[in-house]
Amino acid sequence: MAERPQADLGSVLRHEADRHLPDRDVMLTRIVERRSEPAARRWALSLRPVAAAASVVATLVVGFAGIRLAGDRPDQDRTPAATEGSASPAPSIASPSPSAPDRAPQREEPAHQGPVEKPPPPPSTITPTWQPADRFLDSAAALDAHSVGTWAQGNVTLTTTETMTALDVVINVTKTAGVKDAGKWSTIPADMITITVAEEKDRLVYRFTLKQGTLAPGGYVFAAQYTHAEGERSPAADTYGALATAASGQAVVTGAFPPK
């Protein structure tokens, strides 16, 4: 195909350009119509691209926020830490139930200080059980008939059916008004026996101890002498006891003086 001459192409282009000159009347008509539209519509049309972009940004922000909240959600049993600078929540105060009846204040009981000890019962009168006879040994006590005025003698007589190889006798004289030791003696020879008197808080103790030899079967007297206040004194509170040893074993006798 043969090329057309350059001069012909230029003339064609110019001819076409002359045919497409803009119609000024038509352009002015379009401008007037655009300006007569409401401002809101013009702004809406102008903001459509901006709104579309904002919608995309908001969707992305919400998506990232949801991911963060899902990862930072505290466990059910863990208390979330308070934000620094935030006000502490006000404590909840339970209001009394309107249906609850009024109750009187309870009286406080004093603290228990421990078990309360009951006072011991008063001592009962104990009557001693005397044993005036035991096996080979027999005994008796009496106020000597020669006791007069402020002087008295208490006698204890022991009777044995066996030979005694050891003997210990005690006479207790209760300390009533004015009681003091006034002497002692026994029918056993003095070189065979030891006699002592001991003063205790509430009595005089006369003691007779066989120190050597033996005592043949028979009766032996042991005497405790004392003075006391003017007037009669009953020996009912005076007691005695004896421990004797023989070939068959030991015998123990105890007793009290009869009241006057």
UniProtKB/TrEMBL annotation:
Residues 86-103 have a biased composition (Low complexity). Residues 70-131 are annotated as: Disordered. Keywords: Membrane, Transmembrane, Transmembrane helix. The chain crosses the membrane at residues 50-70. The keyword Transmembrane applies. The keyword Transmembrane helix applies. It comes from the Bacteria. This is Uncharacterized protein.
